[in-house]
Amino acid sequence: MQTPEEAELCFPQLLNTSCKKHIRPQAEAMLIYIVLSSISLLTAALNLLVIISISHFRQLHTPTNLLLLSLAVSDFLVGLLVMPFQILLTEPCWLLGDLLCPLYYFINFTILGASVVNMVLISVDRYVAICDPLHYPTKITTERVQIWVFLCWGYSVFYSIMFLYDNLKQPGKYNSCYGECVINIIGAVDLIFSFIIPISAIIILYVRVFAVAVSQARAMRSHITAVTLKSSATVTVKKSELKGARTLGVVVAVFLMCYCPYYCVSLSGYDLVMGSSTDILSGFLIFFNSCLNPVIYAFLYPWFRKSVKLIVTLEILQPHSCETNIL
To answer: pLDDT digit string (tens) for 231-263?
Structure first.
């Protein structure tokens, strides 16, 4: 029978080297499991709908949608792989061994990194489409986008290996006791390459897109002379301006909302200790961005709503359903 002291240890057989358990109240633990599991399932389900839609319907096989597909794959993997392991990190003890700890963070950084880079690529795609529409078909081709996607994932893997090299080389090096999952990272480097550079690129590109869209709308307005068309044209222009501003605001605000807390904690010198409330909250805010991406990038498209209806009603199982006109 265990003594009270042994019951508080992650590994009672290792009295001198085992970590102590940090037990949460049962109600708090249940709330965490329910919320995080729900977000994980929702993230995987929403992004799976995007993947099926773009992959199945031939009308959606465009360069832009290929980027959306890559983004959906990375976000789907967040819900399928990253979030369930993060739930394990909320446990009082890490029971999966020293090797799986840095390996989890490697998968984490790779998938999240690919998600962020995909967002930048989507911004570039929209920038060329709005600012240089005449050359868009020749500049943004399916073959080039496929190369971009390949480089996106390759960069994410390479960056994660370099970033976590010391942790992967000596798993458990930074653990103070058995039952702990701690990695050592350079917060400033991660801040620059995973946050400052991507968000700066997104903001610059979307501001330019918005400016060009507004200038084009004003140019169209100045050429309208018929009095009967003035009111309707003005409404159209205003809707276009508001839609551009709303899209820019949603993209930037959601990204900042989800990523800022984590990087503020990282800059404060806080160690990524498993199970801490700060770690859980800041980590899942980033993961929640993967849940919101399908809403931001896909749910705003009418074709997605139609394709979801066809998927849910199982009409995609009909012969030649891939040729369905959903645009």
So the answer is: 444 444 445 444 544 665 677 778 778 877 777
Q: Residue 141 belongs to a domain with what CATH number?
A: 1.20.1070.10
Q: How many domains does the chain have?
A: 1
Report d(CA 260, CA 286) in Å as an integer. Answer: 9
Domain extent for 83: 26-323
- Residue indicated by tokens 């970590």: 19
Q: Provide the sign of the torsion angle of the four alpha carbons 22, 89, 297, 145, taken in this order.
A: positive
CA 17 vs CA 1, 6, 20, 22, 141: distances in Å: 20, 12, 10, 16, 57
The CA–CA distances, whole Å, from 83 to 1, 86, 127, 211 equal 35, 5, 32, 38
Chain-centre distance of CA 101, in angstroms? 21
Q: What is the mean pLDDT of residues 180-187?
A: 77
The CA distance from 278 to 268, in Å, is: 12
Q: Give yes or no for a contact between 20 and 9, defined as CB atoms under 8 angstroms apart.
A: yes
Q: How far apart are CA 306 and CA 265, in angstroms?
A: 41
Is pLDDT of 107 > 50?
Answer: yes
Q: Residue 185, exposed/middle/buried by CB under 10 A (0-12, 13-18, 19+)?
A: middle
**143 near 85, Cβ under 8 Å?**
no
**Alpha helices of the chain — where are they, by DSSP H?**
4-7, 26-56, 63-77, 83-89, 97-131, 136-139, 142-163, 165-169, 187-191, 197-222, 227-267, 277-297, 302-312
Q: Specify if 9 maps to a domain.
A: no
Q: How does pLDDT run across 199-240, given as a tens digit for each residue?
A: 888 888 888 877 877 776 677 666 654 444 444 444 444 454
At residue 181, φ and ψ (nearest 5 deg) are: -130, 95
Phi and psi, residue 18, nearest 5°:
-80, 145
What pLDDT sits at residue 145?
94
Indicate whether 18 belongs to any domain. no
